[in-house]
Amino acid sequence: MLEKLQIQTAGNLPIQATTFVGRRTEVETIQALVSKRRLVTLVGSGGCGKTRLSLEVAATQVERFEDGIWFVDFSSLTAGEQIVRAVANVLSIKGEADLPLLESIIAFLGTRQVLLLLDNCEHLLDASAEFTSAILSRCSDVFLLATSRELLSVRGETMFRVPSLSVPDGGAQTAAEVMKTESGRLFLERANHQQVDFEIDEENAAGIAGICTRLDGIPLAIELAAAQVRTLSVTEILDSLNDCFRVLTSGERGALPRQRTIRATIEWSTNTLDIDQRRLLHRLSVFSGGFTLGAVDAICGEGKSQLDGLLLLADKNLIVARESGKGERRRLLETVRQFAEMHLVRDGEDQLISKRHSDYFQQMASEARPEKHQDTAGWLSKLSADRDNLRGAIEWSLTQPDGLEPALRMTADLGWYWYQHGQVLEGCDLLAQGLAMPLDLVSTNTRLDSLYTFAWLLNSSGRSQEASYRFKEMAALALETEDRLHEAEALNGLGLVAYHQNYEQARSYFEEALELNRSLSDGGNSIANLNNLCLLALSQGEYEAAHRYGEQTVKIARQKGRFEVEGVAQFLLAVNAEAMEDNEKASELFRESERLLRKHGFRQRLMHTLIMHADHQMDCEDTASAHHMYREALDICLELHATTVEHQVQCGFGACLAARGRSGEARRLLVKGLELCKTVEDKGHLAHALEDTSVYLVAKNDLESAARLLGAAWKLREDHPGRIHPNVLRRFARLSQPIRDGIGEPAYESLYGEGRRLSSIGAVGFALDSLEVAVVNA
After folding, report:
1. Angle at which helices 646-659 and 623-640 cross, to 10°
2. What pLDDT does residue 249 have?
3. Quick check: 686 and 764 in contact, CB under 8 A?
4. CA-to-CA distance for 710 and 716, rounded, in angstroms?
5. pTM over 0.70
6. At 228, is the secondary structure helix, strand, or coil?
7. With 50 as the cut, is the pLDDT of residue 253 above it?
8. Across-strand partners of 320?
9. Which of 408, 304, 410 is nearest to 367 (CA)?
10. Cα gap 572→565, rounded to integer Å
11. What is the residue-averaged pLDDT of the chain?
12. Taking a C-beta distance cutoff of 8 angstroms, is the pair 762, 719 a contact?
């Protein structure tokens, strides 16, 4: 009787109504697995696209399985014993009265070459495992491709964890950038089904990028969000994702309830957890951006290990476990986090867990202060990984009746990190919020530290007037409370603000701060004052004094293990040696500064050193070395959003590329740098940018414009309060010589004089116009 049964060789793969988007790499990987492994299980969270991916792979295997590829959907089954009947129905096997139906299936399949695609096994794991084991052991030419939220745990099973779709980078703003990602293309494809004229453009690209990122690239979530373009704008959809379950609710009517919405898929999975597992999941919602096992133990487990619970949640794909490049960190998908957070509030544990979270990260910020350790690179990495948690802890504390003190304490402790990682604006924003509140119950020490950090960050971001106000506020409070250490810090800060305006006033502040620090038993922070006096002496051409201050700084910094200060001091000594025309010593000191700063993770400081070292190499006509240094400096600058110095590296790199014959790239960099120069007040920096532009113009044989720019640059240098160093004179002579030779001395002097009459704004505008003309004439 069994021999008479026939099987349709075409199989029963369903025809898809929508286009399959992305995942080419995943398809190829699973194809390779299916070619040699008899049971491959695609595992992932609800809504991650397991079914659609499995069907796409199966469709590529038709020629290989001559007896058919058969899709069996378990989603509507309610009991394990229904699995065998479901498979039999798909294969059109009616069975025999005296033979168990499973035996009929096994006998029928025999040695046929078949691929069985078993979809949605997660709610019938035991029965699915029993069925697949029987097929694997008795049907040698049958291969199985299964989908499930958990492994079947069958001997011979190979797991493929289905990742989310690729999402736009955090800074993605253009349509082209968004369309390079799988999630961006999926959003557009599905939005077009709802609104045929929907397009991605420069106005909505950033919003679509935000939607895809917030939804972690989960296909179902993105499709549900895209469906809302019928009634909502992209901006409205993005804003609504703060409560994602309010908008992600329009699933297909034909789907089962547990598969119709994101909330339903998560709810189904959490219903399989016991009470302790659910409590852990809910408590994990307090974390932003991920967590370590140590943090989970301290905050969610009262110090007890939660490893077993995390492993189980990972097995059920409710947490993302050990992401590539993230070490031991884990995280919740944003949709799962919002679901868990709702239940944490419902359970009445949100305040308790948030307080533990705040206490934990306040302690981390305190331990990370540079004076407490000598592993700055390691701590910078830890703080960067937990940036979202640190910010979240501060923001929560600011909302609590007794939270202002810990919030300001954290912000003060994190000032050095924000500076080194280019997050100055974030630090300023949090400090501004805290310091605007009533400070009656905040300790004087915390107020002083917060004011110093705020003023320092303000000055670092170019907001010198605000910085001066805060430093003076700090100095008055320190004087009132007779806190000489903080008074010295405030005076040192005021010296830094004054440095860009009045050298004599800056010297007065630095020397007064140094005197106060030296009156303290441990010398206070005198090395900062010595370093700044070195900078001031160098700017005024007092090279011997600069060398003396720099050597003192290096000696004390080494004794105290202050690597950042030592690195900066070595950098200043290098610039000083360059000014004294000792190029060999300058290069040696630049390299030592870079070694120290790179080793200990001070990337902001490293960027400055690389820019100056690259400028030095250009003066030595070593454009190859300069190219590598500018390249690294620009990468760091863009990574840290260091806008206050971006014009330096853009223009310097542009001149380097122009000297190396790469005029197209050079022009783009110079234009960017000059546009930034429109807001730069430092006349020395403006002069350097104009000189860099002249290198490009000489390379393009526009000698007349180059002569005018050199005239404008030299006038700016004369107006700058600093000393014009011998190396600057040598550089200027080197830049002007080919122009003099090309157009003759009389013409050069005339054009040079015209340039001197340009204002700083006019000179920058003329430089940009010259770059435009050079392209037209090319």
Report:
1. 150
2. 61
3. yes
4. 10
5. yes
6. helix
7. no
8. 331
9. 410
10. 11
11. 86
12. no
Structure tokens at 687: 């002069």
Tokens of 777: 């004439």
Contacts of 408 (CB under 8 A, 6+ apart): 431, 434, 435, 442, 446, 447, 449, 450
Amino acid making up residue 120:
N
Structure-block tokens of residue 607: 């960027």
Strand pairing partners for 71?
117
Instruction: Give the residue from 586, 596, 663 showing the smallest Cα distance to 625.
Output: 586
Contacts of residue 477, Cβ cutoff 8 Å, sequence gap at least 6: 444, 447, 448, 451, 483, 486
Q: What is the pLDDT of residue 360?
A: 95
Alpha helical stretches, state H, 147-181? 175-179
Angle between helices 50-59 and 24-36 (to 10 degrees): 60
**Residue 305 DSSP symbol:** -
DSSP letter at 169 equals -
pLDDT tens, position by position, 594-628 = 999 998 888 888 999 999 999 999 988 899 999 99
pLDDT digit string (tens) for 300-314? 988 788 888 888 888
**Helices (H), ranges, 600-725:** 603-619, 623-640, 646-659, 663-677, 683-699, 703-719
Give 751-772 as a DSSP string.
Answer: HHHHHHTS-HHHHHHHHHHHHH
- Strand, coil or helix: what is 468? helix
Q: What is the pLDDT of residues 113-150, one digit of tens each?
A: 888 898 888 888 888 899 899 888 888 888 988 888 88
What is the chain's alpha carbon radius of gyration, rounded to the nearest angstrom? 33
Examine the pLDDT at 5 and tell me if it is beyond 80.
no
Query: In terms of Cα–Cα distance, which of 350, 347, 340, 351 is closest to 313?
Result: 340
Structure token pair of residue 618: 């250009």
Please choose, from the candidates 672, 677, 604, the residue with its C-alpha nearest in 3D space to the C-alpha of residue 641: 604
Q: At what angle do helices 563-579 and 726-743 cross, to 10 degrees?
A: 50
- Dist CA 337 CA 266 (whole Å): 10
Dihedral of CA atoms 478, 479, 482, 483 in degrees, nearest 10, equals 30
- What CA–CA distance (Å, rounded) separates 409 from 366? 8
∠ Cα 361 363 366 (to 5°): 110
Q: How many beta carbons lie within 10 A of that of residue 36, not counting itself?
A: 9
Query: What φ, ψ does residue 94 adopt, rounded to 5°?
Result: -90, -25
Side chain identity, residue 492: N
